[in-house]
Amino acid sequence: MGLFDQPLNEIRAYIDGKYRDGLARELPFTPVIPRADSTQVILSEDTGLELGNPGMASRSLLLWDSGDGLADGRITLVGPDFPESDSASLPFAQVLIVGGDFSDEYDCYRDLRDATYNIRLRGFMTRVFPGRQSIWCRVSKEALAGGFSAQILGSSLIQALKQLDFVRGAEVLMVTSSKGDVDELAGPADKVLDIVEALIKMYEEMNFDCEECEYVEVCDEVVELRQIRERLKTEREGKE
Amino acid sequence: MAEAERTRVNKVVAVCGKGGVGKTTISAILSRLLSEDAIGRVLVVDADPAVGLGMALSRFPERTVNDVRKEIISTVREHSTDSMDLAASVDYKMMEIVMESGNLGFLSVGRPEEEGCYCQLNTLLREAIETLSSHFDLTLIDAEAGVEQVNRRVMRSVSHLLLVSDSALKAVRVAESIRKVADDAVNYRKLGLLINRARGEEDARQLASRTDLPLLGWIPEDDTVREFDAEARSFLEIPSCPALEAVRSHILESGFLSD
Question: Are residues B123 and B154 in contact, defined by beta-carbon separation less than 8 angstroms?
Fold first, then answer.
């Protein structure tokens, strides 16, 4: 059992369905990635393509498990690739599925976010708003003209994740086709958000009074969260 | 300009001085000149809680830095958030509130809220402004009054301190006291005094002789400026006029911003 079993199953069904309907394509993972020295800020005048900007549909999800059902290295794109876009702005969903050994779920989650929030690619700006699961990216005109694509972004994300020693494999789904296709991910996304917020609360607040906790229903539903809570509670009582 | 060159330490100009001396007008005229200048990308920051610069430039952002601060506090209260997500959220929202037009970006700091202590969030907000600023060639800050406010709420590093005074000696004394604070608070490279609404060169020289602040020049009273103020017209459209040409001469052509 894993923390994200239910939303992961739903996302895998989404990916399978898109492949089945001929709406998804697989892009090859290419490990050589040009990196920028610092966090990128791309101004609108320099922007060739915006993905998931605050006026568009946008989702950013990060899920992990032991990696049994993982298609390691697979980059799935639903919709136009960045250089193919007719529009200067596209809806965007980015789903990262990671497989590995997560002995401390929260520490691992921090490392996973650190690796992916701070992705530094020349000519590519990314901003995430975790509370809304939004992601907003800008690809510069220069980078777009130079061939910056979903394959480069996907490969870079997989590469960043695989540099973590507890990660065995990673898979990326990107959706650029329509608001409808992005919104189809709302169901699993809501579950991911609930689970992640419950996890953060357990570690950050160290409050195990379930009667007072707004995430009690989430813990009741996700066995793995209850196990983490019990482990933390025991550890804390041992310290007192 | 190539992207590789973009992430460099830019010039950060803070316009400071006693209330009512015309800091916002000078900032607005300078914004107008910089919008056409070859200096590159300019981030204009309205750090005065009165948000006068936004009005002078007809930039009315829906949200300010302080609104972002309130939104984040509200999010943290409603959802479990850790420091990593907090920092990411600040970066996202700061990018959202920059009004971009041509080579100008505009950011309004808004009215400060003193309620509660959110030191970590305030630091994140300031760092987000600094990160943003580093991608512009020049950042122009219309300050509330003194440089300590800029240092605390907007930027830790100010490279050019533009002190504005009018013809009153009291305003020059305030400029001197701002320099004194700046000597401790920020590591500025250049500093100069601009005398606004001076009656003439002699008037400006006499006033300048009573201070050791280096005089950059003086700005005359100008009917065009008065008219743009009275009609609430955007200073980004102000035509050539004596005040505009004086700002051009004393700030841009004098080499004050050249290093």
Answer: no
| Angstrom distance (rounded) from CA B256 to CA B246 | 13
A155 and A197, same domain (yes or no): no
CA gap B176, B212 in Å, rounded? 8
Taking the Cβ of residue B74 and every Cβ of chain A, the question of whether any pair is shorter than 8 Å is answered with no
Asked if the structure places residue A184 within a domain, the reply is: no
What is d(CA B203, CA B109) in angstroms, rounded to the nearest whole number?
35
My answer on whether A84 and A147 are in the same domain is: yes
Q: Kindly list the residues from chain A whose CB atom is less than 8 angstroms away from the CB atom of residue B96.
A: 54, 136
Q: For A175-210, what is each residue's pLDDT tens digit?
A: 999 999 999 999 999 999 999 998 888 887 766 677
Q: Do A127 and B3 touch (CB under 8 A)?
A: no
CA–CA distance, B161 with B158 (Å, rounded to integer):
7
SS3 of residue A32 by DSSP? coil
Q: Are residues A13 and A116 in the same domain?
A: yes
Poorest-pLDDT segment among A110-114, A207-211, B48-52, B142-146: A207-211
Percent of chain A's residues with pLDDT above 90 = 64
> Could B3 and A39 be called an inter-chain contact, meaning their C-beta atoms sit closer than 8 Å?
no
Share of chain B above pLDDT 70, in %: 90
Strand partners, B160: B13, B190
pLDDT digits (tens, 9 = 90+) for B119-161: 667 777 788 888 888 888 999 999 876 677 777 777 778 899 9
Nearest CA to CA, how far is A165 from chain B (Å)?
20
Average pLDDT of the segment spanning A226-232:
80
User: Based on the structure, what is the number of domains in chain A?
Assistant: 2
- Tell me the nearest-neighbour CA distance from A17 into chain B, angstroms: 32
- Cβ–Cβ contact B95 with A under 8 A: yes
- pLDDT for residue B8: 45
Number of H helices, E strands in chain B: 11, 8
Residues A108 and A211 both lie in one domain: no
Is some CB atom of chain A closer than 8 A to the CB atom of B79?
A: yes
**pLDDT tens-digit readout, B189-215:** 999 999 999 888 888 889 999 999 999
Same-domain pairing of A114 and A195: no
A54-69: average pLDDT: 93
Looking at the fold, whether A196 and A156 belong to one and the same domain comes out as no
Query: Does A125 share its domain with A163?
Result: yes
Judged by average pLDDT, the poorest of A183-197, B65-79, B95-109, B226-240 is B65-79
Interchain proximity B89–A45, CB inside 8 Å: no
Specify the number of domains making up chain B. 1
Domain boundary residue, one of A179, A214, A231: A179
Question: What CA–CA distance (Å, rounded) separates A19 from B20?
Answer: 66
Asked whether the beta carbons of residue A38 and residue B41 sit closer than 8 angstroms, the reply is no
Q: What is the largest CA-CA distance in chain B?
A: 63
